Amino acid sequence: MSVGDNHQSVTRRQVLHTGAVGGAIAVTGCVGSGDDSISYISRGGATHDAEREVMAEWSDESGIDVTHQEVADDTEMLELIAENPDEFDFTNPNQAAFAQHGLLYDEELFTEIDYGEIPNYDNIKDDWQDAPFLQGHDYGTFYYNNSQGIAYNTEHADPTSWEDIKDPDHEDVLTLHDNAIARFANTCAQLDLDPAQAVNDDALFEDVFDEMEALHENVFTYWAAGDEWMRLLREEQAYLVEGWGGRTETLMQDDHPVGYVIPEEGCLTYATGFAVVEASDMKDEVYDLLNFLYERENAVSLSLGHRYPVQLEDPPDEITGRYDYVDDPDEVVWFDWDEILPIQDELEERFNEVKSL
């Protein structure tokens, strides 16, 4: 079925202006997607596991299966959709991927969302519906936010600041993300710099990499996948980790002595939104699933499962108790990925130099 045959589509801007309800989740289909199934492509791990469980409830009600494909990161996700657009229905890009969608794919992979088809999207706070990474386009709906701060072993560390991880006592027990953009963004936060300003000012750019070298002094390894840093912290090879709040909660629930802090200087903010693939012929079904996911009870189930806050109006304790929860988008640091992505190759080259020291 196609969307919009018998009604006028509604944009997010219209929804926010009129108070109407709207929201959409990125939906991508996999090989074999047909009238009795829709295909979802996303990053793996605990987040995808939680989504599988809640989406299965919708399948039981609707009779439509959701097939799942897991990828390593958002770049691979976009590449697969671009190469095989007819095989995907929806997905959940992060804010950097939405920037890539515009810069690398001319905003052609995803369809403009008909927010009127997702009345339960009204359960998301208005300020988060218009979060910075969604402004200027209507290709996604807000899903959840998380942060990349400091996870730590509570028996050996108690950091509150990025400066704390430079303490000589933490030599060879620190692991940071093996990602040039993430490291650049977090180091900018540490130095109270706007990354967009730093990439356009030679002196500030060098200041950032000088600080990255200072942080490197205590690093015994850089991690690439979330499971890797969790293992290092769990096995007490690392006492301090540049990690995510939700995964830290998973370790804490398993009775490991861990804590998490958003450093006082701020840190990289990740947020995701659902997006619907332009080539999908199952848009009506995707909208119905998204509407199901935005029901309060189901949104809470998702948050409990992956431990990241879905920003509901009047959120329950199960959501406000998340390590990554903040009430307002202005309380976290947002980055202009449109400015950072064009110099990704240079960032990676310089980051490799830091790691080789």
Automatic annotation (TrEMBL):
InterPro entries in alphabetical order: SBP
PANTHER family the UniProt entry points to: ABC TRANSPORTER SUBSTRATE-BINDING PROTEIN, THIAMINE-BINDING PERIPLASMIC PROTEIN-RELATED
Protein name: Extracellular solute-binding protein
Keyword field: Signal
A Pfam family: SBP_bac_8
Family matches, as SUPFAM superfamilies: Periplasmic binding protein-like II (SSF53850)
